[in-house]
Amino acid sequence: MPRFRAVYGAGPLHLLAVAACLAVVAYALWTELTLIGRPERWLIWFGGGIVAHDFLLLPLYSLLGLIAAAALAPAARRTRVGVAALNHFRFPALLAGLLLLVWYPLIAGPAGRTFMRATGLTKDVYLDRWLLLTAALFGLSALVFVCRLPRLRRRERRMRSAL
Amino acid sequence: MQSRLSLNPFRPQFWRSPLRGPWLASILSAALLPLLAVCAVTGFVSHWAYDPDLGNNAVFGGPGPGNGFDLYGLDWPTSPAWLYAATQGLHVITGVAAIPILLAKLWTVVPKLFEAPPVRSVAHGLERLSLVFLVGGTLFVMSTGVINIQLWYPFGFGFVSGHYYGAIVMVAALLLHLGLKLPVLRDALRRDGISGRLREDLAHTLPEPDLPGRHTSAPSAAAAPTLTRRALLGGVAVASTGLGAMVAGQVVGGPFADLALLAPRGRGRGAGPNDFPVNKTFASVGISRDQTGDDWRLLLHHGDRFVGRMSRDELLALPQTTAELPIACVEGWSTTQSWTGVRLSELARLIGVEPGGEMEARSMQPAGGFRRATLNPGQVADPHSLLALSVNGAPLSLDHGYPARIIAPAVPGVHCTKWVGKLVFS
Fold first, then answer.
1. Residues of B (142-171) whose Cβ lies below 8 Å from A
2. What b/e readout covers B361-376, taking b as 16+ CB neighbours within 10 angstroms?
3. How many CB pairs below 8 Å do chains A and B form together?
4. What is this structure's pTM?
5. Cβ distance of B153 and A114 shorter than 8 Å
6. Domain count, chain B
7. I need a labelling partner for B264 at 20 to 30 A (CA). Which of A81, A85, B52, B275 fits?
8. Are B94 and B30 in a shared domain?
């Protein structure tokens, strides 16, 4: 048994579980890919999700986050007020971005005709609604920030005088 | 500190957030798991609700082998009438609410994507391979599902089988992941508890220590914190609840539909008896107005044998039954209305069909999916299963299936055939 562990890197139960998982995955992939006319499309969507998230979406919002941090709360002269301002910007920005990500087909997607044929409605209201929601999120966040500002400033002064 | 910055994601110094670590990953997983479990179960339940073993109901693969794990053997029940509205509503609500948690979880563990060395052993390599299927499968089912409920079909493959087999890939990989990572979750939560970390203020938001003997996403060169874990998790909770509520508005309907600001069914259509959502307009299906005029006749068949035809007036002269029933769409929205028409069991009795058989309803639609659907014996026999002629006291509108449509308790929306031309009892 120690020999198995040394060669494989884990116990035999691990191998059994992995094999069972991969067998089911292989079954599902095989069934789907032989069932549909253009299997490459399925694979593109499957792999594309990983690429789009791990190598586009996540780096993109991380970079935007770094830029926001450099602008609002630079590490060299970081203040409590700066950090709060950063967070009161980050939260509505992330929420608005999430809404756009999830409801992109309605907000900006090109599927107006299929939507119309299915529901009998036009989908021209959704861009306006998203913009209004985004404005409301930023507005609300700014309002809370302004209300917190006097307390943040007081605490900042107290900390500075304590130093 | 500055000199240790790295622009190479394969170096541990690249990952600077002090928040990442096994505790945060575990908390997010503990929130994500129940949502994914409910979403997966209700998804497979929906496959069952379509009774793919009957008639031409199978959307893919045909009845019997080749149609996935079709081991149910049981007919989908008719009671409670809101059953499908509830299961499918839960499917879409939990799926959409899971998205922010999934994104946060992936953010937390992303350093492990770049861990070095990439493969430490055969076991580690296989585990990483299974993560391709876990992350890929989860992103695949979420993205295809979310796009599909917005009536956009850019896939280039059939949504139903694609989503179904994608879900099987996800569930298989998730079960393995759960088995392998449950000890990490236990260790992390046992070490830190839950409420302690949630009470930390910014000054006390320190990087997590590593778990002994495990490779984790905790940073080795953390920057100073700008956010508490409490605030991060609070933001995720707000996002998840908000998105879930938007979709829930479409399920519950009534005034709550107004919550669905960005969801496709959150829009009032007026106060008239026929002013509720449709998923297939009359204009889109290629039926001419003449076909729905006074010359329309319902054709009744018993198996292959033609047994009679009835006009709309003749149907209206039969005993009428009224039932409050939801139309529950696979896309997760539903709407309950008051339908009036002739019981399917009454029509069967009229043409001398023994009770206990199935019935296929065929639409006058010349082409397209779901233009016929077979109801199981329980659905045909249910006293609330109707060939509806009116809704809310007014004749059906063309968009809602005039001259006649099927409505039956707990039946998925697309099986409530509109513009019925023929009923085939067996």
1. 143-144, 146-147, 150-158, 161-162, 164-166, 168-169
2. bbbbbeeeebbbbbbb
3. 202
4. 0.95
5. yes
6. 2
7. B52
8. yes
